[in-house]
Amino acid sequence: MKKALIFGEYKIARFLPVLRDRGYTDFVVYSAIEFDSALEFDDEGVEVKLLSLDWTADDVVRVLEAERPDVAIANPYAHGQEQLPIVYGQAAARWDGRFVAHSAAFAEVACDKVKLHETGVERGWPVPAGAVCTDAGAVADAARELGFPLVIKEAQAQAGDGRFYAASAEELEAVLAAGLAFPAIVQTFKEGVETGIELISAGGELMRWPVVSMGPLDAGLDPSLRARVAPYTLPQGAAARLEAFLTDIQENFAPYGPWQIDFAVVGDDIVILEINPRLGGLSDLGLTGTGTDPHAVFTGAALGEPLPEVRTRAVAIELPSTEIPSLEVPAHPEGADVMRVTARKPTNRCFINTDRMQLVTTIGDLEAGRRWVKELDAVGLLRCSPESAYRQLEQGFEFFSAKAGS
After folding, report:
1. What's the mean per-residue pLDDT of the chain?
2. 150 pairs with which residues across the strands?
3. From the centroid of its chain, how far is CA 181?
4. Which of 167, 192, 295, 298 has the most beta carbons within 10 angstroms of its beta carbon?
5. β-sheet with 184-188: strand ranges across
6. Per-residue pLDDT reduced to its tens digit, 177-190
7. Alpha helix locations (H) across 253-332?
8. For residue 154, what pLDDT is reported?
């Protein structure tokens, strides 16, 4: 009997079939939330225990020693678990068994925005101009030097928290008055297209899913309320800069497992906004557009299997929507593969305690996609403007047009 231990409940139903197929029969999932496993997945052989968000490396090592799994996998989710990868990396360095987790060095750069900025400046990464601040006076000094608009980020915060936009001194004062946790980084706000890429590192190899466009950066700093599309074609200079950045991370920071980069395309270059040491908001789009599930690939890599190739099969769009139980979602475009992601299922939640949902869909025909977006908007389900979704679809189809012409 082989035993798997997984730290984190996110998308756990996609891990279990891979493990069972490889002969694992005993599973322990440490979850940050309580849930009924029988309602979430086939819970045969699965024991769910509570994970503490305040765990130290000592706590994680104690769990590993008590459970003695054949494989342990770090699977943090953003809400409440954003800082745990550092702890997992420290524990993995002390554990004599197989614990698949990023190195602590990589996790620190990915989890701490001040550390990312300082490391970026030191290594010549394309990070925005900025200043590390330890008090409100330093923030005001940085604002005078950098000029508005600005983005202010707390060093360590959970997903969706600790990020603020200020277009004037008055708005900056409001951010400070509301309470800002220090240290914090103050950076210039870059106008450009917010873009992301999801990757998995294992055995010295790097696997990547298509680049995703999250639309133009805005003062709301919330790409989950914009239409996202994959694939997206990077300008030549931006693509080259991204390759150099990925190479430096891979060779010098020892990532092991999934990670994401959130960056802005500004002209022919990129600006690194943040690194996430986990799977998250892009994984459903990656699966839909390629047919290759990042969670399943990660599970296989955790068992020592080689990384497969991933191929872009279709334009895929993710539309921020509203879940209204009494309202049917309009019929999907013919032949589309559709995924409906809601906040109602604890291990599949993209948001918490909201009516927000994401509709993730392949689109085979541009005009059919336009019609569907229009129908979603007409019945009150769409949370972004139809025009922004149209433009995202056009960018996705431009990728295939350019590929056909090359």
Report:
1. 92
2. 166, 188
3. 23
4. 298
5. 130-133, 184-188, 150-154, 163-166
6. 999 999 999 999 98
7. 283-290, 294-302
8. 93
Structure tokens at 256: 């092991």
- The amino acid occupying position 359 is L
Report the residue count for the chain.
Answer: 406
* Cα 381 versus chain centre, distance: 24
- Return the percent helix, strand and coil in the chain, to nearest 5: 35, 25, 35
Identify whether the C-beta of residue 204 lies closer than 8 Å to the C-beta of residue 212.
Answer: no
Q: Which of 291, 280, 380 is nearest to 330 (CA)?
A: 380
Architecture of domain 2-101: 3-Layer(aba) Sandwich (3.40)
Is residue 163 within a helix (H) or strand (E), and if so which, with residue range?
strand 163-166
- CATH H-level superfamily of 193-405: ATP-grasp fold, B domain (3.30.470.20)
Which residue ranges in the chain fall short of pLDDT 50? none
Using CB atoms within 10 Å of the CB of residue 185, give its burial: 0 to 12 exposed, 13 to 18 middle, 19+ buried.
Answer: buried
CATH of range 129-188; options 3.40.50.2300, 3.30.1490.20, 3.30.1340.30, 3.90.650.10: 3.30.1490.20
**pLDDT single digits (tens) 160-179:** 678 999 999 999 999 999 99
Provide the token pair at 329: 């979602």
- pLDDT of the residue at 404: 61
User: Which pTM was predicted?
Assistant: 0.93
How far apart, in whole angstroms, are the C-alpha atoms of residue 196 and residue 294? 15
Q: How far apart are CA 220 and CA 110, in angstroms?
A: 22
The strands making up 2-7's β-sheet, listed across from edge to edge, are 46-50, 24-31, 2-7, 71-74, 99-100
